[in-house]
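Subject: complex prediction, re-run

Hi both,

The earlier run crashed halfway through, so I resubmitted it with identical inputs.
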Amino acid sequence: MRHYRTELWFETKQRRQLINITGQVQEVLRESGIQEGLLLCNAMHITASVFINDDEASLHSDFEEWLEKLAPEKPYDRYRHNGFEDNADAHLKRTIMGREVVIAVTQGKLDLGTWEQIFYGEFDGKRRKRVLVKIIGE
Amino acid sequence: MRHYRTELWFETKQRRQLINITGQVQEVLRESGIQEGLLLCNAMHITASVFINDDEASLHSDFEEWLEKLAPEKPYDRYRHNGFEDNADAHLKRTIMGREVVIAVTQGKLDLGTWEQIFYGEFDGKRRKRVLVKIIGE
Amino acid sequence: MRHYRTELWFETKQRRQLINITGQVQEVLRESGIQEGLLLCNAMHITASVFINDDEASLHSDFEEWLEKLAPEKPYDRYRHNGFEDNADAHLKRTIMGREVVIAVTQGKLDLGTWEQIFYGEFDGKRRKRVLVKIIGE
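This time it finished cleanly. Structure:
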């Protein structure tokens, strides 16, 4: 069995931002040389997400509006967690979007459907945060 | 390490439909001959889900009602994504339900709890769509 | 390839309770002797969750309040599932929180970010329920 591990780092300019990381994850897979296996890609922070969806700008603004309705950022004092912090909403938003994706590796490629793109979902940004990619296989 | 890959195809009659695919996934595992490992089962479309829950008809109608409340289909123009398309709600519903499940394979069987059943969750159907099953192990 | 499997059992005193199981999962990994691979940790019940978030009590009460708003326990007759049962809300809450986590194993350790902690999320407790840990690797 072979294994490979790397981290991807991000520092967003906005509090909330969605970044298409499909190309970076493909590059990590290429570096690994693994042809068949499973690839795990997860946020290493509990206020961020790695998820798969469509790379379509108006859908992303629908996501923003929808998440703000399900788990509003403000008023900050609506959450007990927000004493020294102001990011309780980010913990909830990330819960909806998910921590991780597991992707099949087939013939050295990410085995994705036509429109599947991998995103880093930042919900409490403006600081350096990281994503783990771990691949096992042969 | 052994690996096995197949696709399952679905074409639902309704826009939204939940299909129990546990038997089909078990059959794929049997074909693979893998005894110990991990099985990934994911929707290859971004408006569909693979998830695990109970095979109980009234629970499924509760899911339908609940998802319609959290991410209503209509009016279509409530979502920016719905210019040429009308399926923004399906992207959101699938996000709640999840893209994928990872299941342990133990002694050649899906290592599931008593009531765990695997479902294909279609949220924008009436066309051919597919699910990936990838198994690695020995 | 090596593999290892065990179950963790829980019986909560409350209907809903979040239990930090990071130490127990680390102990399972140590027992397995696996140095590099992937670890799956999933609820074997469809009214419970395994998820990763922060071990912070006020955040946990925010989760409780938020889940009760998105999928209220009562009145029981708001859900069709609640004929002989009263736990439809638990199926929905667990869907939001997720069934499983997949964690990288690197140099014999759980490869987690600084604040990542693993939780068992019980939403229909007061009875014995279990979590599966399956590790594959080398």
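Strands of chain C lie at 2-10, 17-20, 37-43, 48-53, 100-106, 109-110, 117-122, 129-137.

- K.
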